[in-house]
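Posted in: Structural Biology > Protein-Ligand Complexes

Title: Requesting predicted complex, DLL in pocket

I'd be grateful if someone could produce the 3D structure tokens for the following input. Sequence and ligand are given below.
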Amino acid sequence: MYWNEKYECMPRDELKELQLSRLKNTLERAFYNVPHYRRVMQNAGFEPGDLKSLEDLKYLPFTYKKDLRENYPYGMFAVPLSEVVRIHSSSGTTGKPTVVGYTRSDINVWTELMARSLMTAGIQKNDVIQNAYGYGLFTGGLGFHYGAEKIGATIIPISGGNTKRQVMIMKDYGTTVLTCTPSYALHISEVIEEMGLKPEDLNLRIGVFGAEPWSENMRREIEGRLKITALDIYGLSEIIGPGVAIECPHKNGLHVQEDHFLVEVIDPKTGDVLPPGEKGELVFTSLTKEALPIIRYRTGDISRLIAEPCACGRTSVKIGRIEGRTDDMLIIRGVNVFPSQIEHVLLQFGETEPHYQLVVDRVDHLDVLEVHVEVSEKMFFDDVRSLEILSKKIQNEIETTLGISVKVKLVEPKTIERSEGKAKRIIDKRKI
Ligand code: DLL
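-- Reply #1 --
Done. Output follows.
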């Protein structure tokens, strides 16, 4: 079942022509409306008119998360704010978030892509979708919401959290599709058991999970516990949100919505474009976005291109499951966290030393982040009460910055292992 067969199954020659003409428009839009793009393109000696074929894309400079940060909040927008109908944002590398904007047409495109994605996953008009992705600045909640309404399915905009209520609603409202992060799906499956229910007591049949890394093992676990088909969805705010790529039930890679995004895989060290099959960093270029055109965006996500035709009939190239990141970004309960954000907070406190470690674990399938930080010699001999107050203060500050709960553990001076090279700041005990 296709939502838009014309584009989902477009012959590749035709698709390439469409991509080229859309790419030309995007370059012009960016060059003439975004000072950052004009500057970097001029520095690279490449102007929009120089683009003759899709292969010329490799001459264009990359765009990085830091470019969005440096142009915070609206400097990368190619339209006046009066044309922007929605803002979303995600975590930045040091405190400042990345702000993304959408024109009415961008929202329509996103909705179309989410409608296609849901249909690709096998979801139909008569499904009842329980959307447990967070609603708000995060793109997950609203992205799924509008796509589900578009295909005429029934959406339950429950957002994340309050798991017992999730289960109760799942049972009482006859939910057939669950959308959330894969770790939350596992947690929900446990609570279902704790509440004395079995998958057979529910109507669930499909899950669409993403926003964080997961594995084939985790898929098997979720499918076994919930008795559903679990499919992977990929996206990022800078490109549009969820719906950049989605698995079909053949479970052999995620179809990229190539009429709206160009995908490349590059060697993260040299920047060279790699052929299909080779592992590297995903780089996306938007083809139709108005408010925030984005050229060769370095996602930091590691994957590979799968060019073989898919049995589902869609002609798009696919990407393999995300296998890791090129940087130290952690995803904790679906929220992107950079260690530098935490360091930034810690350095504001004179009572601590700049030696810290982030210990991440999964307890009952939920991510737990513990920040271990050394206190100064002087502080260490203070009374327990002042240490407690300090720990609480740090915890509050980090929680305000990251928007997720953390535990703070103050440790004795000189107990965090010193390194002679790159500091080992992260101990990730999660098994995915
Ligand atoms: O996580 C958008 C999204 C929402 C995708 C709901 C899927 C479902 P950001 O908050 O900007 O956007 O985070 C983007 O999350 O660069 C990846 O590192 C990671 N990510 C997203 N989907 C997957 C996935 C949303 N399926 C960052 N597998 C990306 C692994 C994923 N990592």
